[in-house]
From TrEMBL, chains A, B:
Keywords: Coiled coil, DNA-binding. It comes from Pseudohalioglobus sediminis. One of its GO terms (molecular function) is DNA binding. Residues 80-107 form a coiled coil. PANTHER family: HTH-TYPE TRANSCRIPTIONAL REGULATOR YFMP, REDOX-CYCLING DRUG-SENSING TRANSCRIPTIONAL ACTIVATOR SOXR. It holds the Pfam family MerR_1. The lineage of its organism: Bacteria, Pseudomonadati, Pseudomonadota, Gammaproteobacteria, Cellvibrionales. It comes from the Bacteria. This is MerR family DNA-binding transcriptional regulator. InterPro entries: DNA-bd_dom_put_sf, MerR-type_HTH_dom, MerR_fam.
Length: 129, 129
DNA sequence: TTTACCGTTTACGTTAACGTAAACTTGAGC
DNA sequence: GCTCAAGTTTACGTTAACGTAAACGGTAAA
């Protein structure tokens, strides 16, 4: 069965971005859809790459960093040396993500405190009536 | 006892940024150190704000978003209406941060898989000898 | 056939978050 | 008194990640 394909506006609306954004990612080499005549045709792999890019962006990664991570997924690695270097890069990214998770947890803790203060202030105001 | 203060380069080196960055934050109204003559003097509150800004930046927040969050911490809120609106904003931020945490967890999962593949490939190569 | 979309390329514009450089002041140490 | 490091202001430069506009091609419905 033929693989499912997507038009550029399919993906744009699915992911809530503009077609310009997707073409821009192509300019930068992040996706390489095939063409049907003039029109771009995206396959499942393209779609996944875009999804990964947008996930990266949500946590503040640059497009170049997104590429770095995505490239880790395809095995251009043959020998032991390359495998070790890949593992090292994985560790670097992991450290970064774990730092980010700590940052987010701190942020959430702060929000909890603010909310608790708000609610106790509201309770007090309510009790005053 | 007088509050502890910091020079601009104190904070710059503590946080690993340039003095330009800190002055830029002042231009944008994110910090307002007092002056001793010509020189800027930062107090503990200023220092904490900068710390919060940089934490926000690490998870991809814009400076404006950092201000939004930081502003939630000081109580400019008196009446019940303002308290409810603040709680609503807290919920919005919370949702965003939780999404980010999910994104990070997915990223880490991906890294785990890559590393596992690398290690099993290395084990296989080792066994082949 | 005309209208209405969807798609395309090309190209200039925009915003955030600083970098960088120049020119000047000021207090500390020699 | 001179130097030197650390500070200041002013101002133009830079990069990433698209936005926006113009001008055009294909096709499907009215």
């Amino acid at each position: 069965m033929p693989e499912k394909t997507y038009s550029i506006s399919d993906l744009a609306s699915e992911f809530g971005v503009t077609t310009r954004t997707i073409r821009f990612y192509e300019e930068k080499g992040l996706v390489t859809p095939r063409r049907e005549g003039q029109k771009r045709l995206y396959n499942q792999a393209d779609r996944v790459r875009i999804k990964l890019i947008l996930r990266g962006k949500r946590i503040g990664m640059t497009l170049d960093e997104c590429v770095e991570v995505i490239d880790m997924y395809d095995p251009e690695h043959n020998n032991a040396e390359q495998l070790h270097s890949l593992i090292a890069r994985v560790q670097d990214k992991r450290a970064r993500f774990e730092q980010q998770r700590r940052d987010i947890d701190e942020m959430l803790k702060g929000l909890d405190e603010v909310q608790a203060l708000c609610e106790s202030a509201l309770a007090e105001a309510g009790a005053a009536n």
